[in-house]
Amino acid sequence: MVTPLGTLDRTPPPFFRQGPSALTKLMFCSALAVFLMVADTRFKITRPLRTVVATVLNPVERALGVPVDVWNGSGDYLMGLTFSQSPVDMSSCGGPTAGTLRDFELQELSPNGDLVWSWLASKHIPLTEVTARWQSQCATGGDIYHWNSVEPDGDGYVLSFRHLDAVYRINRGTGAIDWKLGGASRPESLTVVDDPLSAVGTFCGQHDARVLADGSLTVFDNGTGCNRPSRAVRFAIDDTTALPTATLLEDIRDSDGAGADCCGSTRRSSCRRRRKARSRCSAGATTARCSTRCARSTTRRAASP
Which of 4, 151, 202, 305 has the most CB atoms around it within 10 Å of its CB? Predict the structure, then answer.
């Protein structure tokens, strides 16, 4: 005899019986999770378990990371170190004859921590390159370089030094300085073109020097101590001629007209609909700001404030 669908026995077979209701299970598991979190916080009851799990999974994690390291190349790391040296004759920049120098060293390390390559600022940048407004550092702590960014660039690196008001490109093979933009003049200094501020100072406490795919250089110029707005700038670097140049391509000013006492960065973004984009960032109680605008088919240069 065929039983109508409406009269089927709706009781599940013993194998499929669920026990407590879903709500009861949820409440039990939630209470258990809260208990374990509180107990672990106070008594560290799961620390041995986490240690064992981490020990077991670490080789697996390293093995899974090998293809990524191979894809990225050698897998070496860059590290910037700042350390004190004394006594150092700081008299050439207004300091004592037996003072303290906060030196900077750029290191390239293998994944195992072995030193592959290093570059020491004091061997290539003399104290005489400290600009006048930062010379007080020579007498008070010796922080005359104040490195704040590094960017790989082909066979070298581009470095930004805040207290030198300058960006340097160094050759990895020889350690020599290929060019310098901003700060006190030296034989490798680039001639700045189309920047109305270059006569006073191209940079004032700048940060975040980056090389774009087209070879141009972007920098966040803080304007620190120069009584001018912070700005995002982009330069075309030409060091292949007898008179190497840095030509200003873009100059985006902070509309509030405020300089940045410290910190800050800038990025050149691209927008599908060519809409203007603007972002600001502040560091602590300072007025550090960063500004970006969408890339356009033609270069846009902000008018002077």
Answer: 202
Phi, psi dihedrals of residue 93, rounded to the nearest 5°: -125, 25
Give 204: exposed, middle or buried? Use CB within 10 Å, 0-12, 13-18, 19+.
Answer: buried
Q: What is the mean pLDDT of residues 268-294?
A: 40
Sign of CA dihedral 289, 294, 297, 302: negative
Q: Which residue has the tokens 């390291």?
A: 69
State yes or no: pLDDT of 285 exceeds 70. Answer: no
Whole-number Å distance between alpha carbons of 229 and 208: 17
What residues form DSSP beta bridges with 117? Answer: 108
Give dist(CA 177, CA 244) in Å, integer. Answer: 13
- Whether the CB-CB separation of 203 and 182 falls below 8 Å is answered with yes
- Whether the full predicted model's pTM is greater than 0.85, yes or no, is no
With CA atoms as reference, report the closest residue to 206 among 242, 250, 249, 167: 167
Is the predicted pLDDT of residue 162 greater than 90, yes or no? yes
Residue type, 86: S
| Cα gap 115→117, rounded to integer Å | 6
d(CA 165, CA 206): 6
Are 182 and 201 in contact, with CB atoms under 8 Å apart? Answer: yes
